[in-house]
Write a structure and sequence with these properties.
By secondary structure, the chain is α+β, with helices and mostly antiparallel strands. It has six helices and five strands, in the order ααβββββαααα. The two termini are about 40 Å apart.
Length: about 150
């Protein structure tokens, strides 16, 4: 499964952009990032916050030396997320990953498109796992019957 910015990160415009952290210079001794235009962002505190699902995040915060004139006031880095994102990117760009993801477009996504377009089913009508399974089973059965009917006529 692709992460949110995967497609955008593969484009030349993004890879050459100053917003791309890969274009920034990282100084490991001082633990600071330097913007391509020369602004220096130094490490201040580590920020701990919980997400809506009660997951504890650890975010490193970098502030600009001259925050009034810098293009952005601060830089927030979640190293755990960056690690997982890089790992996923390598998996998706590998030959095997490309093959698997290309197959997904053939296998799964057209079915949902047909259900939305032909049947007009965009949202579940019931709540609860059992009722949703029954509802989705009826929708998939109707989709199969439509395909079967087109094939026999």
């Amino acid at each position: 499964m692709k992460y949110a910015m995967f497609d955008k990160e593969q484009k030349r415009r993004y890879t050459q952009s100053a917003r791309n952290l890969g274009n920034w210079y990282y100084n490991g001794k001082e633990d600071s990032y330097t913007h391509p235009d020369g602004w220096c962002y130094r490490f201040r505190p580590i920020k701990h916050q919980k997400t809506e699902t009660d997951f504890q995040e650890e975010i490193k915060v970098y502030y600009a030396d001259e925050s009034e004139s810098a293009p952005q006031k601060g830089l927030y880095m979640n190293e755990g997320y960056q690690h997982l994102k890089n790992k996923e990117c390598q998996a998706l760009l590998s030959p095997q990953g490309r093959q698997i993801f290309a197959q997904r477009k053939i296998d799964v996504e057209p079915v949902f498109g047909q259900i939305k377009a032909c049947l007009g089913y965009k949202r579940g009508n019931l709540r609860g796992m059992r009722q949703v399974r029954i509802d989705m089973g009826l929708v998939l059965m109707a989709n199969k019957l439509l395909k079967y009917n087109k094939r026999t006529t």
